[in-house]
Amino acid sequence: DVDHHSLQHNKYQNIFGLGDVAALPTAKTGAAIRKQAPVVVKNILALRKQQLASDKSYNGYSSCPLVTGYGKMVLAEFDYDGNFIPDPKLKRMLIFRSDKQHWRLWLLKKFMLPYLYWNKMLKGVDV
Fold first, then answer.
1. Can you tell me the mean pLDDT for 103-116?
2. 5 vs 117: which has the higher pLDDT
3. Using a CB cutoff of 8 Å and minimum separation of 24, what contacts does 77-85 make?
4. Share of the chain above pLDDT 70, in %
5. Cβ distance 53 to 47 under 8 Å?
6. Closest by alpha carbon to 109, among 84, 80, 76, 82?
7. Residues 6+ apart with CB under 8 A from 118
8. What is the CA radius of gyration of the chain?
9. 10-41 in b/e burial notation, b at 16+ Cβ within 10 A?
10. What does pLDDT average to over the chain?
């Protein structure tokens, strides 16, 4: 029972939830956790300083990689309302349209996501 945006428990202010256990109305994916973890980290740090929740908010972002062929993929990215919301960080990889199949998206899934997961996301780094 957490607030869908702050991820803070609705009854107990020192409890936060993310991932599958939070029962958020979004896809249960690594991409969702990638966006949830920095929100929880920032809000816990604010709580430790006896401040209100930070301005960091989760919008329901999730994405599902859809492999369309060997070396090709599209990325379905959406928010709580089902709106297509491409991650602006993909532009760093010269991916300007994640809704169109591209070999760079496949490289992202095959090589970059495992690295980011084990070295950044599990540590709460906003990637």
1. 92
2. 5
3. 77/31, 78/27, 79/26, 80/4, 80/25, 80/26, 85/59, 85/61
4. 98
5. yes
6. 76
7. none
8. 16
9. eeeeeebbbbeebebebeebebbbbbbbbbbb
10. 90
pLDDT exceeds 70 at position 53 = no
Distance CA 112, CA 32 (A): 16
Q: What's residue 120's pLDDT? A: 85
How far CA 71 is from CA of 55, 68, 89, 102, 110, in Å, comes to 39, 8, 21, 8, 9
Phi, psi of 66 (to 5 degrees): -120, 105
pLDDT score of 86 more than 90:
yes
pTM: 0.85
